[in-house]
# Entry
Amino acid sequence: MTIPTRTLGRSGLTVSMQGLGCMGMSQSYGAADPTESRATIDRALELGVFFLDTADVYGDGHNEEFVGAAIAGRRDDVVLATKFSLSRDSDSGDMKVSGRPEYVRSACDASLQRLGTDRIDLYYQHRVDPEVPIEDTVGAMAELVTAGKVKHLGLSEASSDTIRRACAVHPIAALQSEWSLWTRDVEADVLGTARELGVGIVPFSPLGRGFLTGAIKSPDDFGDDDFRKNNPRFQGDNFRRNLELVDEVRRLADAKGCTAGQLALAWVLAQGDDVVPIPGTKRPAYLEENVGACDVQLSDDDLQRLDRLAGATAGDRYPYQHAYGDSPKRS
# Structure
């Protein structure tokens, strides 16, 4: 089986219909398992999932090194995406953001070295730096394209205004933002702007950080090293209320003859041919289940039913207010 491809917006960048988010192979979702993670990447390429997503902050560089080693000798078989701008303060451990042009250049060089490659196919600004005009950041990113170090540019979790300003400097191939049955904020304004400007959509966490698979029954299912344990949506009354959405998804999935996770992914895939979700996993079996979503056909009635269910998620996405955001200052 080889899954179909899609093109991200008007960029001409062709990727697999579904990508593979690699973050969990290094952080956030319990202990790393390099053997299983490597097998997952191998299996992804066998199935035609050749759009791999990482970032310099995942595992503080470990994830880029791991992905780079996994694709060594078959670099041309992969569309490789990574990100810059986030890093952890060495003293406090808090996250910080930078979009300064000099940082853009140094971050790219460091990523290329860790990945063991001479080029990045899709280079995202991971989060917008509110202290640096987006024109300055994207201008520096565009220089990387001219230098041949980067093929296409992307933004992550950017506002409509930022996307417009960025596109005025250089074409933006993709916007990576959270989008799923339980996170639909992007639909309010950003989605329309991205499509108007020919920017492809790359939803992360399309399975609601695993919740929409129905595999999570209790907050006790999380280990101490799983960041979801402290996520508001996975706690107390929020958890119980959100289980009601999962139960409804599971009932419809049973009727369709697929899993709840496949149905949730199929819903994202059905939002448009410019949409390429990147579910993350570090297990070949879960990867194969995710790929199966590409074959799930949803009728108009199915989509309407899911639309009625979605959007009533209880709790915030994160357990804290980000110290970074999308309100760039103009110089």
